[in-house]
């Protein structure tokens, strides 16, 4: 991911040429860190777990999942909903994770095929699985497949980053964020990574609080 993002002719440099505010932000706080993730069930399950809860809460649940070895598709598929709930999942997320594990085990989801598919086809493949929406699919495309045009516009931290970048009075909603990303195509993924970096920088500086994404 990092090579595609920060190379001299990479996505971030091309995005900076399109957006003066982005160029200024990169000059002030530097490029975003490498957030690459390992392909496979564990990463996608962790993204599902992180939906609509804080990063701290998601990390705590994931630690319990790993302790129970539910980060492996075969073990999660064989587990009962009650066992998954005992590991910290809600009823709905337990159903989602088990369904994902079963899709991996029966071969209907082949992680090895995803890197060879167009981004929109990856999204269609993933959202066909119950519990996986566009936000989750876009996060997988970005962090695992290094898709530099993935645009998870419904992410709250991403929206907060855009508010900071563009000096807006209010945080843009998902529909507004979707439109604001249009001029950045096909480098919206690079923009997303930088917006998260901007949000994290301001949060660590104490100017804003952590929020659930």
Describe this structure in words.
The chain folds into two domains: 89 residues, Endonuclease Iii, domain 2; 103 residues, Endonuclease III, domain 1 (Orthogonal Bundle), CATH 1.10.340.30. Helix 3 packs across helix 13, helix 9 crosses helix 10 and helix 11 crosses helix 13. The chain is globular. With 213 residues, it is mainly alpha-helical.
Radius of gyration: 18 Å
Tell me the span between the first and last alpha carbons.
22 Å
Quote the beta fraction: under 5%
Helical stretch tally: 13
CATH topology of the largest domain: Endonuclease III, domain 1
What integer is the average pLDDT? 93
Main beta sheet: strand number and arrangement?
Answer: none
Q: Runs with pLDDT <50, length 5+?
A: none
Helix content: 55-70%
Keyphrases for this structure?
single chain; 213 residues; mainly alpha; Endonuclease Iii, domain 2; Endonuclease III, domain 1; 2 domains; 13 helices; 59% helix; 0% strand
In short:
This protein has helices at 2-6, 11-18, 20-29, 41-49, 55-67, 73-78, 81-86, 91-105, 119-127, 134-143, 156-165, 174-181, 188-204. It has 213 residues and is mainly α. It folds into two domains: 2-35 and 150-204, Orthogonal Bundle (Endonuclease Iii, domain 2), CATH 1.10.1670; 41-143, Endonuclease III, domain 1, CATH 1.10.340.
Give the secondary structure arrangement, pairings included:
Layout: H1 2-6, H2 11-18, H3 20-29, H4 41-49, H5 55-67, H6 73-78, H7 81-86, H8 91-105, H9 119-127, H10 134-143, H11 156-165, H12 174-181, H13 188-204
